Amino acid sequence: METVAPRTRAYVACAGLGGLLCLLPLPMTHTPWWALALLATVYAACKQLARRSVAGPFYPVLLAAAFLLPPPAAALVPVPGALLTPAGQRPEALRRIWRAAQLAVAAWAAARTHWSLGGRDAVVGSDFPYALVPAAAAVAVFCLVLTALEGGILALAEQVPVRRAWQGSFARSLAPIAVHGLAGLMMAVLWRSPYGPVAALLVLLPMCVSWWAYAQYHRERAAHQATIRALVQAVDIKDGYTRGHSERVGHASMMIARELGMDDERVEVLRFAGILHDVGKLGVPTRLLRKDGPLTPDERRVIELHPEYGHEMVRGISFLGEARSAILHHHERLDGSGYPYGLTGGQIPECARVVAVADAFDAMTSTRSYRRGRPVGAALEELERCAGAQFDPRMVTALTRALDRHGWRPAVTADEPAAQAVDPAAPAGAAPASSVAAPAVPAAPEPREVRR
Question: What would the pLDDT profile of 114-168 be if each residue is shown by its tens digit?
């Protein structure tokens, strides 16, 4: 949204007009102004706290307002906080107006739904479980309006395809917003009880603690991502010939892991393993990585030390877990002809067998400046041909099934001038710089392959 198209500005203007229309009947409603002011102040304070963390939106106050106040008053609660809190990105004013309008319309719709179903009387009388029915409907409407408006801005401002802009967004958002809705309902019930608003606001304490813990988790995760990104960027700078390869190997490793039914935590570790599998290149002399022409046996032995270099580099990074062994062993082969230790069969860690297949597949399907990438089908045929001797057949089958479901979009990985990137020793149509190329060409492998 930094450079805003006219259609996007028109969309935001329409949303803002809708928000204003939600507020218009406000002076004529029997609004408890002190309650509105208190809820708006609490929500603005929550917005300020959210600005200093990486946690997601905090909706209990808005949903409590939808359960307690008339629809126009509920629509007003988020407006001061949304307008006064810096957006952090340009265009600042437009982003603030958009957020205020989006929340105002969603809160109005939720309150209107709740009141239409008799929810106000249920909250006042603490009529359970009936009070849950209008509250659940209001939460669903709140989520629906937010996701519908958000999908529109994605389609217009971010140029996301219309089908993808809304696909799955409601389902993903409903569960977390439902949790916020339960907290909002507890606030509303306590607010109307003899204990009053002070007790209602106490409900926010455990929510804020969990929110803080969530923010800490995401800070730690962001630090992990930054560590990995720095390592990958260092490899790409040193060996630009395969730029982008690491990220795609991480993605392919993740696809295999999911197809094998691994849990989410292990899938993430396999993604890290794929991304960092070549980090040991940082320990290899740049002249060898960029050498045009055949490598000597001594140079080849230096290149083949990169898995051990990589393992040493990440040894102290605890969150990588078994990814460290994948970095060390991703060039091992089932028949024992790999390196660095010549492990065979089940001696090779499972994670390393996953990364080996992902690495070879991306290298074959990636277009390089000296030759076009192979079609996905041809690459899979080569993997299947080498399965059992070089690759674990189970991993090859898992990748094949995952690609049947999700497809693959290989990209150009080399951005060097053709004169620099072409290997004069590589024959036309030779296998890519990958561990899969050796079985396809059992004779002296071309230099680019060895450097992998």
Answer: 988 888 776 766 666 777 889 999 999 999 999 999 988 888 877 777 777 788 8
Longest dimension (CA), the chain: 88
CB 217 within 8 A of CB 56: no
Q: How far is CA 410 from the centre of its chain?
A: 19
Measured distance CA(325)–CA(348) in Å, rounded: 9
Sorted by sequence, the CB contacts under 8 Å of residue 172 that are 6+ apart come out as none
Look up residue 435 and give its DSSP letter: T
Query: What pTM value is reported for the model?
Result: 0.56
Residues 373 and 414 sit within 8 Å (Cβ to Cβ): no
Q: Extract the tokens encoding 176.
A: 């977390």
Which residue carries 């603005």 as its tokens?
44
b/e code 316-331 from CB counts within 10 Å (16+ = b): ebeebbbbbbbbbbbb
List, in sequence order, the alpha helices (H) in 158-203.
162-166, 169-192, 196-202
- The pair of structure tokens assigned to 415 is 């951005």
- pLDDT given for residue 124 in this prediction: 67
Token pair 């991304």 in the structure block, residue = 275
Residue of 212, 222, 188 lying closest to 49 (CA atoms): 212
Structure tokens at 39: 């809820």
Domains of the chain: 6-202 (no CATH), 219-450 (1.10.3210.10)
CA distance 225 to 272: 9
Name which residue leads in pLDDT, 51 or 254: 254
Rg (CA), the chain: 28
Cα–Cα distance for residue pair 332/46, rounded to 1 Å: 53
